[in-house]
């Protein structure tokens, strides 16, 4: 996925350099603040960078296909060093690849750092890795995190390559064709990389589990939000989206209505079903079409009321299916 | 390439910052040419051609690097003749011209970057980046990656040879050994990094490698920058 200089214009290259530079500065600040810790992590980052570089030279045979894949490293570095140190190491690797091996252009370095380093380390190695392994670090979770993380970050990277190339006005390929060409290939590559990364991380889990981020000590620069704070933030976002942003919803027909209109000439089809069903719905629909009855107003109220109704329902279902708390076994001091 | 960069040719003795600055300006101006401006892009090719000739730099190692970059450029550019049929001249469409421009830009951009690396050592380049206020931690990591790269490449080569001898005729590494093979290399890397940190600390490492080289530009460096940038601007805008 290394982009050549010829595939970007100076403007796009400049923008991506700026984005990557901001990410680099934030990563440096995000690393542990103690001077000794930062000094200690520099040789580790340098050696790990060289390791990933070298490991990329190993070709892994994919059974049944006759082809091979190789390790990329963003997700792996992030799982071992943390997303910030991992991102800085990936930046160093990409720069050395660009200068020594002409793998990726010098002007396109900002794009490559973003497409491979940022998505690999922060999306795959931070968001997805944490989501899967935060509570528990098991083989299955590591495999799932690695595969999902690598696939998602590679697809995001491939999509970004498409956008950057098209924004530069380099190719006459239509957007849809370009995307249809790039994404399936990178889906397969992501799967292979995910499996390779999973194999390595599972080995590390069995050999030295303390090396994995989240397996032992606190995550790099991490402050966990309290559950109540998370709920409060989500509630506020729901109120804003349901109460205010619902007014911004498009009045155009949705995909299904559009398709029906194109086929039949009308946005809705007359129902052949039992009349009693329609009657029930008419009586129970308190806010038909997301508005008060016989009025076009009530969109905000509908958004908030709907969100509250879903919350109450989910809570009720969760309470109904919750595991009973383990009984305390009381033991007396002496038999 | 490092050996070539340590030579005492005219290009090798120029200040690394001067060469880096000229390369960046060259790349920006090269990429700014319109997709139909083949003549302008061809003129920009004079810079790498002149430097290869004046510096006596061999071309063959560059062609191998060229292939790595030109394949994806070709794949992107090959669609242009099919989608852009704007007639520019009898028998020549805009798509054909833009494809040629794209290939030439790719060729000259790789040549310019290669010239920078074959005439400048990685250590000198990193010191120049430090002068441009690139954070010390990033520059130090780049230097360490470069320094230990060869060590690890040799180690991987030994591991691959050992595996091939135990599994002759097998293409690549079997999936049962993906984890253990790379995992062992990883564990050795982490142990090595601790040893590296201890030895660096004993030698007074405080987060950055100090430099004893003088940082100022000489008259020949300033003359080189001026001539190159003026030439690029003339080709680009006149």
Commentary on this structure:
The complex is a heterodimer of chains A (335) and B (238). Chain A has helices at residues 10-30, 35-55, 74-81, 83-101, 109-133, 139-167, 175-207, 227-244, 255-264, 275-284, 299-321; strands at 60-61, 68-69. With 335 residues, chain A is mostly helical. Chain A folds into two domains: 5-211, Orthogonal Bundle (Arp2/3 complex 21 kDa subunit ARPC3), CATH 1.10.1760; 225-250 and 283-322, no CATH class. Chain A has a two-stranded antiparallel sheet with strand order 1-2. The model of chain A is unreliable at 216-223 and 327-335 (pLDDT under 50). In chain B, α5 packs antiparallel against α7 (94-119). Helices cover 71% and strands 2% of the residues of chain B. The model of chain B has no long low-confidence stretch (mean pLDDT 83). By secondary structure, chain B is mainly alpha-helical. Chain B has two domains: 2-120 and 215-237, no CATH class; 133-202, no CATH class. Chain B has eleven helices and two strands. Chain B has a two-stranded antiparallel sheet with strand order 1-2. The two termini of chain B are 36 Å apart. In chain B, 34% of the residues are buried. The chains are: A mainly alpha (335), B mainly alpha (238).
């Amino acid at each position: 996925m290394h982009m050549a200089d010829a595939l970007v214009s100076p403007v796009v290259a400049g923008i991506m350099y700026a984005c990557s530079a901001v990410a680099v500065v934030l990563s440096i600040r995000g690393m542990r603040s103690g001077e000794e810790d930062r000094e200690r992590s520099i040789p580790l980052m340098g050696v790990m960078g060289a390791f990933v570089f070298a490991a990329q030279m190993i070709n892994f045979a994919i059974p049944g296909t006759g082809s091979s894949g190789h390790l990329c490293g963003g997700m792996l570095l992030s799982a071992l060093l943390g997303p910030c140190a991992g991102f800085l190491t990936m930046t160093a690797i990409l720069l050395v690849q660009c200068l020594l091996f002409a793998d990726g252009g010098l002007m396109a370095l900002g794009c490559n750092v973003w497409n491979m380093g940022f998505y690999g380390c922060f999306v795959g190695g931070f968001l997805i890795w944490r989501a899967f392994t935060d509570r528990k670090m098991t083989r299955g979770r590591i495999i799932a995190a690695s595969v999902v993380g690598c696939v998602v970050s590679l697809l995001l990277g491939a999509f970004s390559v498409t956008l950057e190339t098209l924004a530069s006005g380099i190719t006459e390929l239509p957007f849809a064709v370009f995307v249809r060409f790039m994404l399936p290939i990178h889906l397969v590559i992501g799967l292979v990389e995910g499996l390779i990364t999973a194999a390595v991380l599972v080995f590390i889990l069995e050999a030295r589990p303390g090396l994995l981020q989240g397996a032992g000590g606190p995550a790099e620069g991490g402050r966990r939000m309290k559950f109540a704070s998370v709920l409060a933030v989500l509630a506020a976002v729901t109120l804003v989206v349901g109460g205010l942003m619902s007014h911004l919803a498009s009045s155009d027909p949705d995909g299904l209505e559009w398709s029906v209109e194109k086929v039949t000439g009308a946005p809705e089809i007359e129902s052949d079903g039992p009349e009693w069903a329609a009657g029930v719905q008419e009586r129970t629909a308190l806010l038909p079409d997301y508005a008060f009855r016989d009025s076009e107003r009530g969109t905000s109220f509908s958004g908030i009321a709907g969100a509250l109704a879903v919350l109450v329902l989910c809570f009720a279902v969760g309470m109904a299916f919750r595991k009973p708390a383990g009984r305390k076994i009381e033991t007396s001091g002496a038999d | 390439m490092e050996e070539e960069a340590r030579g005492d040719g005219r290009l090798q003795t120029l200040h690394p910052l001067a060469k880096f600055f000229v390369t960046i300006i060259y790349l920006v101006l090269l990429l700014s040419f319109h997709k139909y401006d083949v003549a302008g892009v061809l003129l920009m090719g004079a810079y790498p051609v002149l430097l290869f000739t004046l510096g006596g730099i061999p071309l063959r190692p560059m062609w191998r690097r060229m292939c790595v970059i030109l394949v994806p450029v070709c794949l992107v550019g090959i669609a242009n003749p099919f989608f852009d049929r704007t007639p520019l001249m009898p028998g020549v469409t805009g798509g054909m011209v833009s494809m040629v421009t794209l290939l030439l830009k790719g060729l000259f951009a790789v040549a310019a970057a290669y010239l920078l690396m074959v005439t400048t050592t990685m250590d000198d380049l990193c010191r120049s980046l430090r002068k441009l206020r690139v954070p010390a931690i990033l520059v130090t990591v780049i230097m360490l990656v470069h320094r230990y790269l060869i060590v690890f490449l040799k180690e991987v080569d030994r591991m691959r040879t050992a595996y091939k001898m135990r599994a002759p005729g097998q293409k690549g590494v079997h999936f049962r050994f993906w984890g253990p093979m790379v995992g062992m290399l990883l564990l050795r890397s982490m142990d090595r990094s601790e040893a590296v940190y201890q030895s660096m600390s004993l030698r007074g490492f405080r987060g950055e490698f100090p430099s004893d080289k003088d940082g100022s530009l000489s008259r020949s460096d300033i003359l080189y920058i001026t001539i190159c940038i003026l030439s690029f601007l003339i080709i680009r805008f006149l």
